[in-house]
Write a structure and sequence with these properties.
Strand content: 25-35%
Strand order of the largest sheet: 1-2-3-4
Length: 130
């Protein structure tokens, strides 16, 4: 009888351990896929297009937006679908924009965006949303 309980306990522990490893591996696979999407050329085009929509002279001498950097730690799955990602503009941590990236008709695009106050003022859109 005692041997039977030990076998049942061992099988239970192995099953729980196996499920834990599977869930961890699935999460790591999802994280890797999200990183690949966010750092892809298609995402770069989407970021550039959206930033140029806010600042038509972006990435030029006359523009207000000169560069952006992806905050790696901000990349996460959005529960409503898509991937959330934050960009730091012009290497200023107070000028950020957070996007929800999603696929629409097979094309990656910047969905909803949350723009920092400092960036909104720089781009001249602060008064619009005030």
């Amino acid at each position: 009888m005692k041997k039977r309980w030990i076998i049942v306990l061992a099988i239970t522990v192995i099953t729980i351990f196996g499920l834990g490893v599977k869930f961890y591996m699935d999460k790591e696979k999802l994280n890797k896929e999200m990183m690949n999407v966010i750092y892809s050329d298609e995402a770069k085009e989407a970021f550039d297009k959206d930033l140029k929509g806010m600042d038509s002279k972006a990435f030029t001498e006359e523009g207000k937006v000169h560069s952006y950097e992806i905050v790696r730690e901000s990349i996460r799955r959005n529960p409503m679908g898509g991937i959330n990602v934050e960009l730091i503009i012009n290497n200023d941590s107070e000028m950020g924009i957070e996007y929800t990236m999603d696929k629409f008709n097979g094309q990656l695009r910047c969905g909803g965006a949350s723009i920092s106050q400092k960036l909104a003022k720089l781009l001249g859109i602060w008064e619009v949303y005030k």
